[in-house]
């Protein structure tokens, strides 16, 4: 036999590396060690298994040609030995052995290696609150727990569910409970918005409204203080503000890298506890590699290491580790943190940095917002999509892109294109000329990714002057905060009329877009005009015209009413 390759961890990065090594070195003796009896499954598919979109858990463990990835499959089809139900307990770097223990029998043995890879993944963070150990409290950590959750629902044991955590997994689980099973579902999130640090407030607000419109209760800015129960079984969740009844509680408060075996072996780890690797996925011991949710990687925008527990990255990292273990120099340069999720009939995605993170990292960051049509306006299935571009004013580099819109490939395609461009350091100008495939059923002639770049270009060059959504909403809640402001609504009178009626002509002036050039002298020039339309495009055009006739005190509300409607603004008359 050739080189002895031992891989600890059998979910994503581990099997990918094992199969890559075996393809490149058929004489290698490749062994995967995993403490679970179910391994090499698509963990990101667990919410969809619970929801019923994936009918059988075996589908999460199957190949694209419908073979279940079990011990026999790896040995017969891949030539890889899998020791499942076997826990790796220690690494002896001097002797190059891994001590393992059979979970069922307790029997121990030392397995020698020439090259070792650690792919131990992550573990869910369990909140240190009373009641966390009650029957009916679950984390989303493995397939066994997913099977148990679905079994309880299917048997009618779950009428009310509470999810702790408004991140992607928490929201996906909330949808899973509500959409198919009709379970009364609540989400409790400690931060003031869902998907904190992943997307910014406008996008998060749109997602929150949509979840609530689909009867998922979301409570923001509330921390779970206690899980309550009777006779050892969960009955509810308590926060500082309320007690929610529950037959099941899902703790989805994030994950932490599982690196105890690496720490005990003396390998270098980061302050957050992730294994430190170089671009070849080597640890501080050149004979030991690591990949997947147990490591940190370079963020290609911030230039700093970050933690990105994503199955897509784990597979890429696993292939790079496999290359290098087989003697092929290969590099994983880093990532930009691309993300997308569905929520009932919409989706939300992001790549790169949010505005909040970009400002914290010291960038001269700003955002452009737009809400155009996702395809030609005359095509029957045309819908509105909302985009936010984060950019650096000094360098004009695009730092991030966020999108929200109907479920489909429209958002995904733009996020994917942006991820590729952002990873190469692309500027606003690059995005403005980015070529996207065009046909009316798929996009507008001016693609939405180009359109958002045009907005950013106008902002960066000082042609467009805007107010933020946050500032505008503060004013709408209390007009006294900006007494010199007045809204200039340039939409059709049928659309603008209810706002004029509600707020009065002293706060809401309505002149249609196509009449401004003739009627601009009617405007109250002692006020600062906040120009509003549906998406913001016409508002900028009117701002430009007004400036040409000496009306300089204007601001545009980018994204306009298309975004306001989707954010669930209470004061909007058409609500």
Automatic annotation (TrEMBL):
<dbReference type="GO" id="GO:0016491">
    <property type="term" value="F:oxidoreductase activity"/>
</dbReference>
<dbReference type="InterPro" id="IPR023753">
    <property type="entry name" value="FAD/NAD-binding_dom"/>
</dbReference>
<dbReference type="InterPro" id="IPR036188">
    <property type="entry name" value="FAD/NAD-bd_sf"/>
</dbReference>
<dbReference type="InterPro" id="IPR016156">
    <property type="entry name" value="FAD/NAD-linked_Rdtase_dimer_sf"/>
</dbReference>
<dbReference type="Pfam" id="PF02852">
    <property type="entry name" value="Pyr_redox_dim"/>
</dbReference>
<dbReference type="InterPro" id="IPR036873">
    <property type="entry name" value="Rhodanese-like_dom_sf"/>
</dbReference>
<feature type="domain" description="Rhodanese">
    <location>
        <begin position="511"/>
        <end position="573"/>
    </location>
</feature>
<dbReference type="InterPro" id="IPR004099">
    <property type="entry name" value="Pyr_nucl-diS_OxRdtase_dimer"/>
</dbReference>
<protein>
    <submittedName>
        <fullName>NAD(FAD)-dependent dehydrogenase</fullName>
    </submittedName>
</protein>
<keyword id="KW-0285">Flavoprotein</keyword>
<keyword id="KW-0560">Oxidoreductase</keyword>
<comment type="similarity">
    <text>Belongs to the class-III pyridine nucleotide-disulfide oxidoreductase family.</text>
</comment>
<keyword id="KW-0274">FAD</keyword>
<dbReference type="InterPro" id="IPR001763">
    <property type="entry name" value="Rhodanese-like_dom"/>
</dbReference>
<keyword id="KW-0676">Redox-active center</keyword>
<dbReference type="Pfam" id="PF07992">
    <property type="entry name" value="Pyr_redox_2"/>
</dbReference>
<dbReference type="InterPro" id="IPR050260">
    <property type="entry name" value="FAD-bd_OxRdtase"/>
</dbReference>
